[in-house]
């Protein structure tokens, strides 16, 4: 029974594809719409500025910095994916994988370089000591 349903589903997909071809309509996932690109940028900002796998290891960015970094990363990843060589018959899947990989690599590289940078470490250290000093003065004031 399951094989019959699966076969029927395949026939329906073939019919739908045939109808789209007859109407001269094609479907491709590349290039992404501006709405999709904006959603990707928003996801990058969230990954860099809130608790995530990256932030647990490398810390978080302020939202403003994350927004600027996300804009640049997505633009660079889009350009790299757009210029990548993919098979002529690619429906966008392979190029989308390149785009995703480029974004992931850029996020990781940026966070690694930021945490390895003495200036970044110093900045984080200064922020931590400022918070500690504020907490100490609050405790002293309350005493």
TrEMBL record:
| Domain WPP, residue spans | 26-118
Q: Does the keyword Oxidoreductase apply?
A: no
Q: Where are the stretches annotated Disordered?
A: 112-143
Q: Where is the composition biased (Low complexity)?
A: 113-123
Q: Which InterPro entries match?
A: WPP1/2/3, WPP_dom, WPP_sf
Q: Write the record's keywords in alphabetical order, separated by commas.
A: Cytoplasm, Nucleus
Gene Ontology terms, cellular component aspect? cytoplasm; nucleus
Location(s), subcellular:
Cytoplasm; Nucleus
Question: An example of a Gene Ontology BP annotation on this entry?
Answer: mitotic cell cycle
Any Pfam family hit: WPP
Protein name, as recorded: WPP domain-containing protein
């Amino acid at each position: 029974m399951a094989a019959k349903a699966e076969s029927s589903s395949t026939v329906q997909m073939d019919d739908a594809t045939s109808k789209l071809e007859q109407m001269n309509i094609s479907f491709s996932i590349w290039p992404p719409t501006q709405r999709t690109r904006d959603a990707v940028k928003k996801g990058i900002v969230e990954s860099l500025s809130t608790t995530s796998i990256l932030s647990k290891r490398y810390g978080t960015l302020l939202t403003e910095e994350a927004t600027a970094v996300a804009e640049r990363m997505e633009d660079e990843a889009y350009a790299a994916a757009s210029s990548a060589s993919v098979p002529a018959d690619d429906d966008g899947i392979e190029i989308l994988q390149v785009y995703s990989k480029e974004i992931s690599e850029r996020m990781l590289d940026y966070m690694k370089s930021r945490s390895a940078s003495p200036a970044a470490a110093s900045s984080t250290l200064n922020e931590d000591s400022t918070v500690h000093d504020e907490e100490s003065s609050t405790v002293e004031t309350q005493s």
